[in-house]
Amino acid sequence: MLCRLLCTAAIACLALNSAMAQDPTKVEPKHYKLHFENDRVQVVDVHYGPHEKSEMHEHPGGVSVSVTGGHLRFTDQNGKITEVYAKAGEARWFPPFKHKVENLGDETYNAVYIGIKGKLTAAASDPKQESPVTAEAMAKILSDYAQSAAKP
Fold first, then answer.
1. Phi-psi region of 63 (alpha: psi -120 to 50; beta: other; left: phi over 0)
2. From CA 132, how far away is CA 122, in angstroms rounded?
3. Which of 28, 71, 73, 147 meets the CB 3.0–4.6 Å disulfide criterion with 89?
4. Residues 137, 124 contacting (CB under 8 angstroms)
5. What is the pLDDT of residues 81-134, one digit of tens each?
6. Strand 32-37 to 81-86 pairing
7. Cβ pair 45, 68 in contact under 8 A
8. Which residues neighbour 50 within 8 Å (Cβ) at sequence distance 6 or greater?
9. Domains of the chain
């Protein structure tokens, strides 16, 4: 009986943890702040101080625009590690993903993540499906915008 109770409690905790892992603004509010949201997009301000790390969290497919440069380490749910040198004004497309992040630099890293909700996420993660705007086109539009906004 005790074993059954403990197993039930463990499964409930795992389910709750899994449900909360969906939204980085809930799992990692220190690093991710909701800026805007509607039924189509979620715009999130991203902030990592020098050498700060996150817990595992998920993002919908979308575009990340780096406001400042940074040296970051991404570790996915399978343990695969990718290091990225982000440049200010650079935009990158990401399909839906789950990861944890570490800022390897001595400077603060800031970005904006525009997560696409609904059918666009599915279409963008599968290049065979039709989408009104390609991931590359969206990244270029946002990169051009970020660069023009940064000019005095």
1. beta
2. 12
3. 147
4. no
5. 999 999 999 999 988 989 999 999 999 999 999 999 876 544 555 544 444 455
6. unpaired
7. no
8. 103, 105, 106, 107, 108
9. 31-150 (2.60.120.10)
Where does the chain have alpha helices with state H?
2-20, 24-27, 119-125, 135-150
Given the structure tokens 């603060």, which residue do they identify?
A: 108
Q: In this structure, are residues 25 and 44 in contact, taking their beta carbons and an 8 Å threshold? A: yes
User: What digits encode the pLDDT tens for the residues 11-48?
Assistant: 444 444 444 446 888 989 999 999 999 989 999 999 99
Phi-psi domain of 89 (left: phi exceeds 0; alpha: psi -120 through 50; beta: other):
left
CB neighbours of residue 111 within 10 Å: 22
* The two structure tokens encoding residue 108: 């603060």
Task: Report the C-alpha gap between 17 and 22 in whole angstroms.
Answer: 9
- 């343990």: which residue's tokens? 79
